[in-house]
Amino acid sequence: MKINIYQINHERDTHRVAFVDTKYLEKAQGNSAINSKIYDKVFSGNVDCKTLDDVYSRFNTDHPTGYCGRSLSISDVVEVLEDESLEKGFYFCNTYDFKKVDFEPSKTQDTVSRNMITVLYIQANHYPKTVAIDNSLEAMQKLVGGNIEEYMPFEDEVAIICNEEGKMNGLPLNRAVYDEKTKKIIDIIAGDFFIAYAPIDSEKFKDLPKDLEQKYREKFKFPERFYKQNGEIKAYQYKPKELDTIR
Questions:
Q1: Threshold 0.70, pTM exceeds
Q2: How far apart are CA 46 and CA 57, in angstroms?
Q3: Residue 244 counted as domain residue
């Protein structure tokens, strides 16, 4: 699901309608219309959610990497940009449900860094997931837990960004990289890493296109364990014990 999230900025909230249900808006401000001018955009990106309730849970218990807003609450507005089942539009978070409303995003203030990019994040013992991060060295180092190394073993314009000292520091072996022709292991990534779109003509990483996201999500879908056999390192895949949805 691709979404934007808008939250009321307290400094512009002259009628004090933050955390107010739609049924109380008219009493608080004199009318029932959503005042887009008092909202900030605090998130924009893809999330592994199927419903708005999933979005609510995700932004309360497990904030996506790069998210800097408050936990999702009453009066927040979720814009659904792309989803297989939900109709596109704006959904106001009420006390017990979400209500579709009229909203004018052009009147909001964008606090989301214009430098955000979408990447495929791959952790040891987990399925891959799509996250939005700031396109900065600090954010990338935080994601992999140390100094980064850029590795481009594929024909596509994508880069593996990993911890350059992962093996040296004994981080868990995560996924193998295979020769695309022989299918033999050519490297093993230690520690968490992510896949970023790295066009040759760009000095910076960009949003991972949907087709490449799906391709590498499939390629690195299952975690791997490694063993030696006849002097060779081999791997076998397994399903992790988690509730992540495979897409």
A1: no
A2: 15
A3: no
List for the chain the helix, strand, coil content (%; round to 5): 20, 35, 45
Predicted local confidence at residue 187, as pLDDT: 95
Note whether 95 and 167 are same-domain residues: no
pLDDT value of position 113: 58
| Residue ranges in the chain whose pLDDT is less than 70 | 65-66, 113-115, 242-247
Report helix, strand or coil for 64.
coil
Q: Where are the beta strands (DSSP E) in the chain?
A: 2-8, 39-46, 77-82, 89-93, 98-101, 109-110, 116-122, 129-134, 148-151, 158-163, 173-178, 185-190, 193-197, 224-229, 232-237
Q: What is the pLDDT of residue 245?
A: 44
Q: Is residue 247 part of a domain?
A: no
- In this structure, the answer to whether residues 91 and 158 fall within a common structural domain is no
Among 110, 130, 149, residue at a domain's last position: 110
Q: Are strands 129-134 and 116-122 parallel, antiparallel or unpaired?
A: antiparallel
